Amino acid sequence: MKILIAPIAILCALFGAGSASAQIPEAMTQDQREYQHCMQMVSADPDQAFEYSLAWVDRGGAFPARHCQAAALFALGEYGEAAARLEKLASDMEGRAPPGALADLLGHAGVAWQQAGELERANAAQSAALNLAPHKTEIRIDRAMTLAQVQNWWEAIDDLNQALEEEPDNVMARVLRGSAYRQVDALDLALEDLNLALSRAPDDPEGRLERGIVRRLKGDMEGARTDWLDVLRLHEGRPAADMARRNLELLDVKPE
Question: What is the pTM of this model?
């Protein structure tokens, strides 16, 4: 699961640093020190981070305090509330922040809506983000995942096509597109994507799991078995390993 850590574009906007290319000064202001402290607590103790951010807002903390508050809510599993606050923050910063920073906030809101199971709202937030910053590859991949969750496979493939035009070596996008191609029964294209992804990241668990599924569908049972055994060997305890084990069990079931 993603943690809502602010990229430099958001940081510059939160602290009024001017442009997304600016750097937060090395000599931090009081607000910057408070923000750093609050965001460190998000990872270590999100309850404490939320209480700290509430007190900070009461003391006059502005955008940085509100961003830390939303990040703490996300870490606490309050995804819908985190998403709503991130969208409100982006709205309130409109005209005060560059498009890339607003897109990042909306992209984070989209991830939070995804986690809340509010897929239409996730799609809306991610689409708004991409309207502001069409070349944000990570947000485009996130929207593809949202589209895949509602089985809009071809729209997901369109997003992944664009993501891979921007970043041809992006392994996650390649694996996701391979999975989407499988869902539309384009098995040769799926296998091509998965082979290419695994040539760059041979131990990627999702890539090996997915390639095993495609190999099985193409009749290559031994190839499928090899991929799934590799997932078990390399990634025991992860969700991909649980799926690989179930697929191996099904592969070994013999009809009466």
Answer: 0.88
